[in-house]
Amino acid sequence: ANVGLANGALVLLLLRQREALQALERSPQERRKGVADPAHVLRAVDTVLLKILIQTEEDDTRLQQVLRSGARCCVDDMEAFLRQHQRPDVLAHLWKRQGRFDMALKEWAALLSGAAAASASVSALVGAMGAAPISPKVVAAEMAGALRSALGSPGSDDLCRAYVPKLLAVDAPAALPIFVGAPCKCPLAPDEVLSLLEGHGALVRA
Question: Which pTM was predicted?
Answer without folding.
Answer: 0.84
